[in-house]
Amino acid sequence: MPEIKKLIEELERTTGKKVIFTEDLDSVNLDIQRAVKSMATPLIDTIKGKAAFYAKKHGIRVDVVETMFKNDFIKYLNSRL
Amino acid sequence: MEELTKKWSFLNQELNYNMHGELADSLGPYYKRAAADFNELNNHYGIEESKDLRFLDADLSFDGELEKLIKKYNIAIPEQPLEETEKKDERELLMDKKSSRAYEEIYDVIKNYFTDDRTHLSLKGNVIHFEKRNPEIGEWEPSVQELKAKTQWKMDGQIQNWASPKSADPFRLDIIHMTADASGVKGDILILLNNYLEEDMGCTGDIAVSEGPIRKDSMLKRGPKELESANQLERTGKILKESEGGAFAYYYKVGYSWWQKWLKDNAPLYDIVYDKQDRLYLVYDGNVNILTYNTKTEEVFTDKQLDELTTKAAALVEEIERLTGKKITLL
Lengths: 81, 331
Hints:
The complex is a heterodimer of chains A (81) and B (331).
Chain A: H1 2-15, E1 19-21, H2 22-37, H3 44-58, H4 62-80
Helix pairs in contact in A: 2-3, 2-4, 3-4
Chain B: H1 2-17, H2 24-27, H3 29-44, H4 49-57, H5 62-73, H6 82-87, H7 90-96, H8 99-111, E1 119-124, E2 127-134, E3 139-140, H9 142-151, E4 153-154, H10 159-163, E5 178-179, H11 185-200, H12 216-222, H13 230-236, E6 248-249, H14 256-266, E7 270-274, E8 280-284, H15 303-324, E9 328-330
Antiparallel strand pairs in B: 1-2, 2-3, 2-4, 5-6, 7-8
């Protein structure tokens, strides 16, 4: 496991992206999409608070959930433009 | 039975507006009351209390669960047939309402967020009054009282004039005075308002939501003059510290420069974007190609470096998937 952790860290450094196991994606996606709709502005503190909640709920790293929030918020805004 | 049906109707109506999934964690007392209503219904229908209330506490995604319960116990939903409800989200439901009905329903939603005895909301004609009692002097806070004339929330046709950036009366809805104890609630209320104004009333305008830059004590010290208009705030560029515990939120119609300054101080990673209707959005790292711009190191890569990194990344993905036996996704 430490080896996998190192590889994941290296991949995240290389790409600047967060790594998430695809099977975990679906479980958290729906919650985040709903939550994003309820957010007025993507303030850092608001995102962090909500991300911490969902990270705990789904057992996923909080920084990964934060990234999902930010990405979904952009998608949501684009859909309204 | 009639009373229970009313409760169910009320609850269902509220849930329609609050199906954001995560709201329960911030609603607190409101949520407990909703749970109590469910409890009463469940008792009436002979449903085991803890079993069917579990989703309220654990899952929090209660929209789907609510529908399951409705189907399971064949409870009629007032006004909206279930099939139609399933196809619509809360915004679309809002759009369907007649203006006066929507007004009453929004008021219902808003008033139920305010559970402390210091806040007073009243519905007078088409105006919602938000008032706050100062416990130290036992009277309405003067600044709020004086601001009341400008905080009247007019829900009639004139609102369209307000929402336009070119409005002849830019102060018509400068400020909505709101208080709430839990983080996130104010934003949800304002989203409802925003949707109502834009989608149901057909308004356009720069809708800006401010959660935090004004401190309660600063406002009280400075009085209504400081808040005379959002334009003044913009002109002075006055940015106060974060509010404490989300005690106050103000809804300003502010300009670009105000947001620019606020963002620089509070959220430097965000950009301002106006859409064709002059609505303002904050965009994080909007259209940046993540492989040519590393958000962690803020490095920008050449094409050659990019090729090398892409090859390296692909090899790492392959190796991680092989070792774990799971597919991975890069966000």
